[in-house]
């Protein structure tokens, strides 16, 4: 009485087979016909496909993923280059300002045209404006106790912050720009360089333009540049 040969699919442990093949990657060398007979699940449709077709499909998917990642990197590089060029133009325009009023106007113009920031206020204490022959021109404002207390409250002990701006606060902190009917948003920074020099407020009627989750690296940088220029211009106005 003869016994049927055992079915290898039932006697061989799939995990051990996989482990053995991983240790013998050259097993299919000279056995290309066996590769063509292997069937694997199709990744997109029901049924099976040849191993070679599956490999082609996987390689194509990997190539598409790599192409997508490359495009993302290129897009990020283009954005960073554009941001650098806009920031460079902003700083150069600020350096060319001849006085504090020109500084504030250059700040407002550059931020509006290149950074989609329609409203700017530069609050400076009276000590920086008393010696000037004319009252400050917008977007510069003279910092009084009332405005200073509200700005400090909005910053909540932080050097800079992005937050919502109610119509009431907008009218108080950006009096030279019509207030939106509903809440807007702003990024603000305290200007200091050895001593308090005021506050910088960048605002938008869009409540989501400056979100609380956004970092303030750009606002901090602009504030540092403005603070140094205010100190540099102070002797000429005294």
TrEMBL record:
InterPro entries tied to this protein: DUF484 (IPR007435), GAF-like_dom_sf (IPR029016)
Protein name: DUF484 family protein
């Amino acid at each position: 009485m003869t016994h049927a040969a055992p079915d290898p699919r039932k006697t061989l442990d799939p995990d051990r087979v996989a482990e053995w093949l991983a240790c013998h990657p050259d097993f299919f060398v000279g056995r290309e016909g066996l590769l063509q007979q292997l069937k694997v699940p199709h990744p997109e449709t029901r049924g099976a496909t040849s191993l070679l077709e599956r490999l082609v499909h996987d390689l194509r998917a990997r190539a598409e993923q790599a192409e997508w990642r490359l495009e993302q990197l290129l897009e990020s590089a283009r954005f960073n280059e554009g941001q650098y060029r806009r920031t460079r133009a902003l700083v150069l325009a600020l350096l060319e300002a001849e006085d504090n009023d020109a500084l504030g106007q250059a700040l407002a113009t550059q931020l509006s045209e290149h950074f989609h920031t329609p409203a700017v206020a530069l609050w400076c204490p009276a000590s920086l404006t008393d010696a000037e022959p004319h009252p400050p021109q917008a977007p510069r404002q003279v910092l009084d106790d009332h405005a200073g207390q509200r700005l400090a409250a909005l910053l909540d002990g932080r050097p800079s912050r992005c937050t919502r701006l109610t119509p009431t606060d907008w009218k108080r902190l950006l009096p030279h720009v019509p207030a939106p009917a509903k809440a807007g948003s702003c990024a603000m920074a305290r200007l200091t360089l050895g001593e308090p020099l005021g506050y910088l407020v960048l605002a938008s009627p869009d409540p989501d333009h400056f979100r609380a989750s956004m970092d303030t690296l750009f606002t901090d940088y602009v504030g540092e540049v403005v603070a140094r220029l205010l100190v540099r211009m102070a002797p000429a106005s005294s």
